[in-house]
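Sequence in, structure out.
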Amino acid sequence: MRPEIEYKREMNRNYIVLRAGEPEGEPYTTRMLSENRIDGVLPFHEKYIDGERWYYYDITSRQPLHRMLETRCISGEEIRQLISGILFSVRQIERFLLDESQVSFEPQLIYVEPDSLKSGLCLIPGRKMDFARGFYALSQYLLEHVDHNDSEAVVLAFGIMKESGKENFGVEDIERCIGKLAGGEGNIKRQSMAGNKNAVESQGMGSHTGTGGYTGRGWEEGPAEMDAGEKHHNHIRATWILAFFMVLLPLVLYLRMGMLGFLKYKWILGAVELLLGAAAFLLSDMGKGQKEPGEKKEEMDRQADRDWEIIFREKDSMGEILPQESYQSSPKRETAVTELPSEDEEDAMQTILLTAPIPSRASRRLVPVREGEEIELGYFPFLIGKSGELTDYCLDRPEVSRLHLRIDEAEGGCMVTDLNSTNGTKVDGHLLAANETYLLPPDGMLEIAGIQFRFITRL
């Protein structure tokens, strides 16, 4: 159950505030969190207010993960950075002998740096949570928010989800999954495809009883494949035995009967040698036809790679799958349109247009009180901050935070939400708390880190 969250601003610092309650046996955890700066964990301190204990987590200049992914998708590189950072934080928690089951993996409580997605985890003393279930839910959330045009993102998110869904999974398993993709996409694609096969079999759509199957650690050989491998080795062994006798017989005949005996029985010896040679040749040829179980597994894995990769292959205008190098060489390709779109394509285009920012019904703008340029609010939600990549308007001033505030359309004006800014946001003189939402009426005054704007509405 998610604890009740409050937000407070104190001395240009923003905090999540949680009621501590009375957890038993947690003084070690609170002391370790208060006296140590654990990398990857939100800075923590404890306060007593009116006889009650409160936990304060510093979230200044950070944003919750769910807010970062509200209006955009996450890429494969960002997933790798995010999950690697979370796993590193869990390692640090273990190094300080803290309980990782007290970490919350809810996107609302994972605070990240807007530019790098470096994570800060919220470790709540006394709150026991299911680590495996929480991490699996996080992996599902990431899979739902990936860029589906980015095959690396889909494969990585799916692989992490499948790995975390296994029983008794560990941090090492997720690290190995990420490492495999970093070393070559084929490995993790094979792992993901094998997970698909296992899921299909568990639903009764296929069975490998007696013929081998996927067990979570790889494809294991069943009795039939073991028999094939044993036959292969037997053929090789018999070939070498026959070759040994072909060399041994002439030598024994020469040592026992000398040169005269050797010449006397040379025709019989030649016939025997010929028969042994023919038998050795046949056995050798049969052995080549038998593949070892390892070779069979490698061939199945290569086929799994091909099947998995084809899901992400792009198609040309005729519906044919493009060669791999044609879509891997450049992430953005220009395609010439020579035909009118079909009805299905028009529906798809209309659907995409519906998801675009909705223009405002009235002309709204922020007019600077002193120097500066006007800010046209052409759609909502509208983000203002110092980061040109993350905001709709870049207010490049040192006192402005990277993501400073968000403006939403509302009846009677607009709603302004402070996004954990360092130097604060004021509406008609009222200083907003972190994440507080406040009504900005027509002709109202909006102050962004000391920079004043007049909100003008023209119907």
